[in-house]
Amino acid sequence: MRISNALFQQLPGEMIMCRRMLLLFIALVIPLLLAAQEERESVRQALLDLSQDRVLMDLSAHPDDEDGASLAYYRLKFGVRTYSILFTRGEGGQNEKGPELYEELGVLRSRETEEAGRVLGAEVHFLNFLDFGYSKTATETFRKWGGEMEALRRLVYVIRKYKPDVIFTNHNTIDGHGNHQAVAVTAIAAFDAAADSAFFPEQLREEGITLWQPRKLFFRAFGRSEQVADVSNDINATDPGRGKTYLDIAVEALRKHRTQGMERANLRAFTRGKSLYRLMRANSLYEQDSTDFFSGIDLFRDPSVAGLGPIRRELDGLHEGMAKDSILAVTGAVIARCDSEARMPGLSDLARRMLDHWADESGRLASALCGITAGFRLQDSVVVPRQRVDCTLTVSSGGCALGEVRWHVHTPAGWVIDPDPGVPRVAGAGEDRRVETLTVGENAAPTLPLSVTQYRSIEGRDDLSARVDFLADGRPMRLTVRPSFEIAPPLMIDARPKSVALLQSRAGEGFALGYAIRNFLPHKTAGRVGIRAAAGWTAGNEPFVIDAEDSSAAGTLRVRPPASISPGEYTIHLRTELANVPVAVRVIPARVDPGIRVGIIRSQDNTMESAASTLGVDYALVSDGELRAGSLSRYTTIVVDIRAYLLRDALRENNARLLDYVRSGGNLVVMYQRLQEWKPAYAPYPFEISGKRVCVEEAPVHILAPGHPLMNEPNRIGESDWTGWIQERGLYFPAGVPAEYTKILSTADPDEPQLDTGYIVAPYGRGSYIYTCYVWYRELKEGNPGAFRCFANMLCYPLHRAAAR
Q1: What is the Cα–Cα distance from 785 to 488, expressed in whole angstroms?
Q2: What is the DSSP letter of 292?
Q3: Is 726 strand, coil or helix?
Q4: DSSP letters of 632-677?
Q5: Phi–psi pair at 304, nearest 5 degrees
Q6: What share of the chain is helix, strand, coil (3-state, %, to 5)?
Q7: DSSP labels for 107-165?
Q8: What three-state secondary structure class fits 627?
Q9: Alpha-carbon span 184 to 180, nearest angstrom
């Protein structure tokens, strides 16, 4: 058969048209398929949730400590309601993604934990204890947390509030991080204390806080305890709706902890694919099943809920594939029955928990079937006390007719909400929308700035919420919504920097204090910004104007201390008429030799260059290009910042050039690196890095080489230089250190052997190599005088090292 040339000439155009049609089909159909899949998954999960009446609570010391695989397993496979309770926000750790530390790092890690919770289906809450860094004992942890009773009080509160049947934790009482031990100790005490009215009776005055007895408490079984585990959760099972194992879902959640570098974590290797637990406490004898936390727990054995059996049986009749009208008939009847039962006198706490759960989840299932969404949105996402703001309350439906929509808005004490007469209500079969005016209470507690407010009390919070009752295709339904907004002071002022280190010999020059003022008032504002300080301090007093809400003004003040200021710590206040913020100023008695030039191989933040600037040292950041091919000999000293070997590819690839720099007369100062990031060959005389650390920041420091220039020139280092440290002394101490190195210091935690490799120095060729794992970066960031004096000696060492040879 012969095909004409004309047909061949037409084929390319037809193929292009087909390709365009295919792309159009994909663009139109794929989103619909994904939306349909999401809707089916929402319905499936809602059916699962209604099949369960049980509650599970996971306890963790820090973000990323949670057992995400077990949380995902019980939540996504069975529909168990899950809570993830964290004692801290992880602010005492290291930040692998940026410069934020302490409270600001806590803000980031809180968000990461909430993101992880959404992946796992767990509701996340924090007890707001400070993460003060690594601890080796529960005793130290309780001391820093305000005592064992304070830890118990907060945990008892959340148990009484969320009423779990089973509590579990990755932690135990005898080994590992001291914070972990404290969580386990507190869990054991809280198991019975939550049901005892002698403990914290004042909590019981708050609505919804009642005595509660959990049924079981489990601790994770690691190592030798695996042999006596009571439960093994099947975390390698595949979730039918997601096509992933529960362990893989936990890996996805763990990778949300970006500031901890968890995108590289191998959870499967860490857990070896196991989720094993030992039963530590139970309120009764239960039939054992080694595959289930909840084995033997039958809530309907409790006489107080026996009368709710008919509602449970009605819910048990729901299943996937059931007609929508039939499901709506069941959920509507359940909501009506729950309302009726909830009005009965003498209702037990378990019965009320079950009724609330059934009513809420019935509404969620109906909403998933009908494509119903409810919204409560403030016109202004950041409000101030006494502000009036319009709110839009909306219910819309894509698949069911709406009717008889009734809103019930709960406002905190002192807040008022009224219909806005100027905006008509929109009501129809597919949507009901109304606008009301909210007046924020005069004493409304701010939620901004998060770095401060995230630590407010977990008790007695009264949040803005709304419940909407309506008919969907004639069936009664209910949803609860909470608006997303923040409460701010009228103005917020931020000092840049928040603390200042000032060399005493340069104090007369003063320092630049930057400010940023943000306006949250719903109108233009103006004022003046200056400082409040003791006599002798001076600074400008500058006007500012901010034209609109959520806008800012920024500038710089030149602050000068008294001419004859003594070393020490001073507090000044950067202030306007409506806001102020304290600024710590530390005047440091340190000396620096003239003529030195410092290169800084930066990692995550500007601490090292800020310290060099404070000392008045001529410094520059060493670029990747300079590491590869630049002249390093122009630097008297080069500082390798903490963990730079992880973050700087050019450093790892060109470390030999740094050793050549040392051999030729340079001075290389290497701050701590982690064992996973370190190669012994990075040092001129190789050594390993260990996991050893000294956690007690007050641990005595002993000078092993009192005559060494690093302890004498240009600053004589003494006992007072080790006071006022924060969080810890040092971490990741070198191991197997060759004899070529001189050991300068030693320190140790209580009842532990001395660690003498935290500050070592060796000659190499004509130069010198210093490695130190003391936490200089934390101390320099906080303006510790002793840290500055030691750092100055490191930078100036080439001018004095001849005395050490």
Answers
A1: 36
A2: -
A3: coil
A4: GGG-SEEEE-TTHHHH-HHHHHTHHHHHHHHHTT-EEEE----GGG
A5: -70, -15
A6: 35, 25, 40
A7: HHHHHHHHHHHHHHTPEEEEEEE---S--S-HHHHHHHTT-HHHHHHHHHHHHHHH--S
A8: helix
A9: 6
Neighbours of 298 (CB within 10 A): 9
Please state, in angstroms and rounded to a whole number, the distance separating the CA atoms of residues 363 and 356.
11
pLDDT for 508-543, tens place per residue? 999 999 999 999 999 999 999 999 999 999 998 999
Helix (H) or strand (E) holding 253: helix 246-254
| Cα gap 599→631, rounded to integer Å | 11
- Bond prior to 589 in cis (omega within 30° of 0): no
Q: How many CA atoms lie within 13 A of 184 on its CB side?
A: 24
CB 200 within 8 A of CB 153: yes
Q: What is the pLDDT of residue 3?
A: 44
DSSP category for residue 77: I
Write out the H or E segment, with its range, that includes residue 249.
helix 246-254
22-40 pLDDT per residue, tens = 666 665 555 544 455 566 7
- State how far the Cα of 735 lies from the Cα of 203, in Å rounded to an integer: 51
Report the SS3 class of residue 266.
Answer: coil
Residue 545, token pair as written in the block: 């104007």
**64 half-sphere exposure, CB direction, 13 A CA radius:** 23
Please list the residues that pair with 769 across neighbouring strands. Answer: 668, 762
Gyration radius of the chain's alpha carbons:
32
CA angle 317, 245, 293 (to 5 degrees): 60
Helical (H) or strand (E) element with 546:
strand 542-546
List, in order, residues 6 or more apart from 20 with CB less than 8 Å away. Answer: none
Amino acid at 325: D
Which residues are CB-contacts of 384 (< 8 A; sequence separation ≥ 6)? 440, 487, 488, 489, 490, 520, 521, 522
